[in-house]
Every structure is written in structure tokens, then in C-alpha cells.
From TrEMBL:
Chief localisation class: cytoplasm
Sorted UniProt keywords: Cytoplasm, Methyltransferase, Transferase
Family per record: Belongs to the class I-like SAM-binding methyltransferase superfamily. EFM5 family.
Enzyme nomenclature, EC number: 2.1.1.-
Region described as Disordered: spans on this chain: 1-21
Cytoplasm keyword on record: yes
Family matches, as PROSITE patterns: N6_MTASE
Stored InterPro entries: DNA_methylase_N6_adenine_CS, Efm5/EEF1AKMT1, Mlase_EEF1AKMT1/ZCCHC4, SAM-dependent_MTases_sf
Ribosomal protein keyword on record: no
Name this protein carries in UniProt: Protein-lysine N-methyltransferase P3X46_009389
Organism lineage string: Eukaryota, Viridiplantae, Streptophyta, Embryophyta, Tracheophyta
Biased composition, class Basic and acidic residues, residue ranges: 1-12
Pfam families cross-referenced by the UniProt entry: N6-adenineMlase
Top class in the EC scheme: transferase
Amino acid sequence: MEEKLVRPRNDGVLDGNGDDDDLPMLSSHALAALREFIEEQNQLNVDERREETGAEETGGKVTLVSEDWRLSQFWYDPLTAETVAKEVIALLGNNSNPSSRVACIACPTLYAYIKKIKPNVSVQLLEYDKRFGQYGSDYTFYDYNEPEELPSELKQAFQVVVADPPYLSKECLEKVTETISFLATPGKSHLLLLTGEVQKDRAAELLGLHPCGFRPQHSSKLGNEFRLFTNYDPGMRLGGWELEK
């Protein structure tokens, strides 16, 4: 079979109808080899991005490492993760401090979505699972049983703190509350808590939080009803504060 000669266009895209006689011409076999090489390089670039972030994007969806139920890990569904991530970014936009930072306590899905939507945002993930050490300096090992065993440079350093305690117990929320107090800038931080409906009264008592109308959901459908609580009135966002009946 006759080999068709193909010219590369000036923009690097292969074209069979090139007019520039100064450009080299490739045989169909060479073209096939070049395409294979380009595909391999593209795949390498994708793999490198996955290694850097620990997350994979699939049609706009972020896929994390697999959940480890032994660590009480249940990732948010895309709508929840994106909604909360956009809320965090909106809060940063309303903050006059250009160096504002975000702390994500035990919510790696949120970290991944914030970085996907706005990569230059300064976000610190505090998480027990050391698989997330692949986030580099954005990762801090965190054990809620030692709520203030954290680097001193994190103390009162965050203008937005989001927490999702791994367990629905009174003890766990009390200890996570200590961590929030350690991280938050006194009197200036926006606090968001994602936890079970059963923690509603404790969230109000310990942190002065109110429930929002928005209902968080998880990719693994859980039996417990989850809620989002904040220490600020979100207005029309997040379904607003839910009024007491």
C-alpha cells in the first residue's frame, strides 16, 4: 500500500494538506510512531499530576484514593464537595487579607476540590491517613486524640476552618473543637462543621454553630443524616441558616 505523506502544521497539529514546502514530511509509519509517542507523553503528564495531587479528575469529578472504612472515611459526593469548596472560596474572596489560609480537618475531598477550582489557594489538610502525605507541605498528620499536637506555625493561622470529625461521639467533637480553637484566628475565622444531625446541640454549645439548609451527601450512601453548620450567616448560600421550628 502506498504510504501517504503527512506534514505537521505550524501549531504542532498533524495535517495532510500542508502547503509549506519548508516543513519536513512524514510517512504514515512515522506518523503512527509519532502519535504513539505523543500519547505516551500525555499519559505521563497525567500520571505526574495524579502523583502530585493524590486525586484524579474524571469529567470534572475528582476521584481520591479509596476510602478506608476502618478509619471512618466516607468521601463527599461531587455536588457536596463542589458546593462547600465554592463556599470556602467565596469566603476568601470576601476577606481583605490576601494571604488568607484554609484548614481542612479530616476532609480530604474538600481539599482536593478547592485545589481543583482554585489551585493557588493556601489550604492545609490535617488528616490521620498518611496516604495523603503525597500532598507534600499541604499535609499535616493529625490524630484527634491529640488535638493540639500540631506544628506551632499553624496556631491561629487560618481565616477559614472546615472540620469533619471522623466519629459522631461527644468526645470526638470536643477534641476536634480544641483543634479548631488552636487553628482559628480569634474572632476573625469562619468555621464550617460537617457532621451528623445528632451533633446539632453539641455544635451549638461548643462552637456556637447553626445548621444550614444544605444537606451534605456522601458517595457511599450513609444511614446517618449529615448536616453543615456554620458560625456565620451564609445568607442565600448553603440554603441559608435553618430557622428553629
